[in-house]
Amino acid sequence: MPDLSQIVKAYDVRGVVPDQWDESLAELFGAAFARVTGATAIVTGHDMRPSSPALARAFARGAAALGTQVTEIGLCSTDQLYFASGHLDLPGAMFTASHNPAQYNGIKMCRAGAAPVGQDTGLAEIRALVEEWATTGAPAPAATPGAIDQRDVLADYAAHLRSLVDLGGSRPLKVVVDAGNGMGGHTVPTVFEGLPFDLVPMYFELDGTFPNHEANPLDPRNIVDLQARVRETGADIGLAFDGDADRCFVVDERGEPVSPSAITALVAARELAKHPGGTVIHNCITSWSVPEVVKENGGTPVRTRVGHSFIKAEMARSGAIFGGEHSAHYYFRDFWNADTGMLAALHVLAALGGQDGTLSQLVAQYDRYAASGEINSTVADQAGRAAAVKAAYADLEGAELDELDGLTVTTADWWFNLRPSNTEPLLRLNVEARDAGTVTRVRDEVLAIVRA
């Protein structure tokens, strides 16, 4: 009996192949996905990991055995799978482990229109069926199995993205892109085709063993090569995608990282120009600059918990036009409320190419405060340490405390958020203030309690 508690996470399936899951389990997941969604047809896609094609095909077999038609779009980025789900109005399954090491793989599932499937929206039921069938055997097949066919949607995906951003007036730009041997190497050439960019590709060879660096651009170690190439080539901008290319990280012409909060604010301003008066979602660790810019541009900011399921649910509830997270996930109403780093990148390129200044000059107006970045502390008692921090700040004059997501303490000059990891014995700290000295002081005060 497989231990599904180790691989079925809050939003997806993820684990080591074949130790924790394999093709036989993937087939059961396919059958369970078909049963829970009640779909007569679904769409699947996969990344470049060595185990992905066989897992995706096994999933398709499981769904087809119950009479479900399966359209395979093959190699794709996660946001390309979301596009297919929205464009074809079908539930979808993407085989990827994003930025995890090569031995991992996983499944990101969605309902028709790219609506997320998480623990509260079907994933718990899927897990229960897989556990049952792993013991009793696969469910009885349908009298007529569903067909499995193939369809290439890459060109349609690229055309849809380009239709949402006007790049016609852009000046020529030199753009370095580090795909990290992930799916950006598959999608970027088609999306950028015909645009006024001198593309400098890095690590575009699809290789799920990640021979050059981890495909996780939020780790500073993994953008060192990109920063160097931007400086060497005199490029205007550098872009780094994660393994499944749904996140995009930006560096400026100096090779300096641009805060994802600044990118959120920049894209929010552009989306509000298209959709005046709209609502913009941001999570509780994005910069103060995000709600400020939203209000300055006539929009309504809404703060939510960290995590794509919370962002997407709030976007659907509020009709928001855009949402951004400090993890470099960007969500668009024009993209079925799904996250797409590629569309965010096109917005940044359009903003940069539509004026004569440098990227660092452009984003300065959106990057207004000093920040610590996320600091992780390994602790044996998450709840106890968090409670100690809360007690320390509960009576601080002028401070507001809220527990929307972990603990947030806000004053006139600084704020911090301390929240537990859902998967590891960690507390994650983010601090922002009006100056760097205050960031250092507050950071050290909180860490002294957390690590006592």
UniProtKB/TrEMBL annotation:
Residues 6-133, 156-255, 263-369 form the Alpha-D-phosphohexomutase alpha/beta/alpha domain. Residues 374-447 form the Alpha-D-phosphohexomutase C-terminal domain. Keywords: Isomerase, Magnesium, Metal-binding, Phosphoprotein. SUPFAM superfamilies: Phosphoglucomutase, C-terminal domain, Phosphoglucomutase, first 3 domains. NCBIfam families: PRK09542.1. Belongs to the phosphohexose mutase family. The keyword Plastid does not apply. This is Phosphomannomutase/phosphoglucomutase. Its cofactor is Mg(2+). The keyword Metal-binding applies. InterPro entries: A-D-PHexomutase_a/b/a-I, A-D-PHexomutase_a/b/a-I/II/III, A-D-PHexomutase_a/b/a-II, A-D-PHexomutase_a/b/a-III, A-D-PHexomutase_C, A-D-PHexomutase_C_sf, Alpha-D-phosphohexomutase_SF. One of its GO terms (biological process) is carbohydrate metabolic process.
